[in-house]
């Protein structure tokens, strides 16, 4: 069964996206974002001062090898959801997982990397380059490679992954899984925020805006359902051939 267009939801989400962008681009509203960005960064970054074990924890969470563990945890979320599904729905659930993985990967590559990083490359210094007396983990823990500086901080790559995961998983799995997914997504956003590689608005407006736009296209139109149904047909064909 193909999901119909959800035009009201699509319009609502796109309107919310427009308001988010306007809040950052409109000078009178952007002032409040600037104040919130600085206050939030000072609050979380100063928690690192003179706390070595706390610094090591966030340095490890910031390290590139932590990405693999974080992605594994995302896979575990989907695996638990699939295992708890009725057996008759598991093929569709696996297809939806594959759709989400491929869709998120395409967004990260074509939008975050090619569009924002390579083509547009918006000049926006990260908090660590702007706020005085910030704790620089790369200096506090020089033996570990840590990203705490960026000249083009908008939007956040890790935050985009986190928000795309949490929003898509919440939509598919329902509210009882959603709470844990959003708590985990918030944790995934924190390493780059606490070290000063990104502003809060990079996450909320930048990554949040990307998630709103592309997930509304996927789930408020038949796109996600059609591709998932196509994957199920491929699974069934392979099963028939093997039998």
Could you give the topology of this structure?
Blueprint: H1 7-25, H2 27-45, H3 52-62, H4 66-83, H5 90-120, H6 127-130, H7 137-140, H8 157-173, H9 175-195, H10 200-219, H11 223-242
Helix pairs in contact: 1-2, 1-10, 3-9, 4-5, 5-8, 5-11, 8-9, 8-10
Notable traits:
11 helices; 243 residues
Number of domains: 1
Radius of gyration (CA) equals 20 Å
The quaternary structure here is single chain
Which regions contain 5 or more consecutive residues with pLDDT less than 50?
none
Cα distance, first to last residue?
26 Å
Helix/strand order, N-terminal first: HHHHHHHHHHH
Mass-distribution shape:
globular
Helix content: over 70%
The largest β sheet comes out as:
none
Query: What does the average pLDDT come to?
Result: 90
Q: Please report which band the strand proportion falls in: under 5%, 5-15%, 15-25%, 25-35%, 35-45% or over 45%.
A: under 5%
Structural class given helices, strands, pairing? Answer: mainly alpha
Give me the count of strands.
0
Compute the number of helices.
11
